[in-house]
């Protein structure tokens, strides 16, 4: 295997607890929503890291922490070796230029009273060094062209565009400052299926053109597989499993990943026959009161006593070989048995 370059982002033991308070006059903290509770991963230059997991597992909170829109309770986020999670003022502004976000909902994330020219050019107000005043219009027209929109539309308003076109505007805005990293939080989840592929293809084209690193968050496993080089699976504020797309989709070793994948429709009838659907019992527990030990144990068919007392660490399972040799947070991480052996 070729030697990997240094990561552009290194996230270590990231924690975000939101306090739960009670009382009207004198507020007391009565607990905490453990939205993100010890998450570690790397992002490499030019790659796409997909993050999947059910609603509420902490994906958007991770994104906000990376963007410095939230402060971590604990842990570090290193960008090119420097911890950026507690920066402020000028230092924060300088780093922010390199990490930009594309949001889920193209209908609410664009200000309806601003023209697309003003929306796309707004980041230049904060970073005038990227585009001096006289150059802005030309830069915005160029950005419209880059995302496949007619530069003549520069004076139109968001409501004059379709959902897919609006997401292109959101992407153009994200690109304005020529960032190195784009954190895309469910960028196509609100779009029609027919439009999703166009936006994903555009993002792939732009990645090559500008050498971008993507963190691509979604709950749709098929889309994530299509765009990602590596994939991380989150459950209740923790990373359950992380590996290449092939490792996660063909050789998952964490029961949660196996259950998620068993619910994805498979177009090939033969592949479908060879696979048993795993139906998870019960609901996702509250992040204010997560289960002890392994967070997945209340829904896991493999759970044993040890799972309630010992928190499994994200690590390569001792006996794993081949495609299954990637990090998984399960005491009994293992590829699924062939179906003939299933009881
Ligand atoms: N500002 C906040 N205050 C309190 N709880 C929050 C806040 N933001 C998110 N949460 C909670 O944290 C958990 C994770 O949320 P989120 O990161 O949005 O998940 P996802 O994006 O995976 O759906 C949820 O239980 C959510 O209700
Ligand atoms: S550690 Fe135990 S409960 Fe958790 S996923 Fe593995 S077997 Fe299931
Ligand atoms: Mg979210």
Automatic annotation (TrEMBL):
PROSITE patterns: ABC_TRANSPORTER_1, ABC_TRANSPORTER_2. This is Dipeptide ABC transporter ATP-binding protein. SUPFAM superfamilies: P-loop containing nucleoside triphosphate hydrolases. Belongs to the ABC transporter superfamily. The keyword Transport applies. It comes from Streptomyces albiaxialis. NCBIfam families: oligo_HPY (TIGR01727), PRK11308.1 (NF008453). It comes from the Bacteria. The keyword Metal-binding does not apply. GO terms for molecular function: ATP binding. Keywords: ATP-binding, Nucleotide-binding, Transport. InterPro entries: AAA+_ATPase, ABC_transp_ATP-bind, ABC_transporter-like_ATP-bd, ABC_transporter-like_CS, Oligopep_ABC_C, P-loop_NTPase. Residues 9-261 form the ABC transporter domain. Pfam families: ABC_tran, oligo_HPY.
């Amino acid at each position: 295997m070729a030697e990997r370059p240094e990561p552009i982002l290194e996230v270590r033991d990231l924690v975000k607890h939101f306090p739960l308070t009670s009382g009207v006059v004198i507020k007391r903290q009565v607990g905490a929503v453990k939205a993100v509770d010890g998450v570690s991963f790397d992002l490499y230059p030019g790659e796409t890291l997909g993050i999947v997991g059910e609603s509420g597992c902490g994906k958007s909170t991770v994104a906000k922490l990376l963007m410095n829109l939230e402060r971590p309770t604990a842990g570090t986020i290193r960008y090119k070796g420097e911890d950026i999670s507690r920066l402020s003022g000028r230092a924060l502004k300088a780093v922010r230029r390199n990490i930009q976000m594309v949001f889920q909902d193209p209908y609410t994330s664009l200000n309806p009273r601003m023209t697309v020219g003003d929306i796309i050019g707004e980041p230049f107000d904060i970073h005038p060094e990227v585009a001096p005043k006289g150059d802005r219009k030309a830069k915005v027209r160029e950005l419209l062209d880059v995302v496949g929109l007619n530069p003549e539309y520069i004076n139109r308003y968001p409501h004059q565009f379709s959902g897919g076109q609006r997401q292109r505007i959101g992407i153009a805005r994200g690109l304005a400052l020529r960032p190195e990293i784009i954190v895309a939080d469910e960028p196509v989840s609100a779009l029609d299926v027919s439009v999703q592929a166009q936006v994903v293809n555009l993002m792939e084209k732009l990645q090559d053109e500008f050498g971008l690193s993507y963190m691509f968050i979604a709950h749709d496993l098929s889309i994530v597989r299509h765009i990602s080089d590596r994939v991380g699976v989150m459950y209740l504020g923790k990373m359950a499993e992380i590996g290449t797309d092939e490792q996660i989709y063909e050789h998952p070793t964490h029961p949660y990943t196996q259950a998620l994948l068993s619910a994805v429709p498979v177009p090939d009838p033969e592949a479908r026959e060879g696979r048993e659907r795993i139906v998870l019992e019960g609901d996702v527990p509250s992040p204010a009161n997560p289960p002890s030990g392994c967070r997945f144990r209340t829904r896991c068919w493999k759970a044993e006593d040890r799972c309630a007392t010992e928190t499994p660490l994200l690590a390569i399972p001792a006996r794993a070989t081949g495609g299954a040799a990637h990090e998984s947070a399960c005491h009994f991480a293992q590829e699924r048995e062939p179906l003939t052996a299933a009881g």
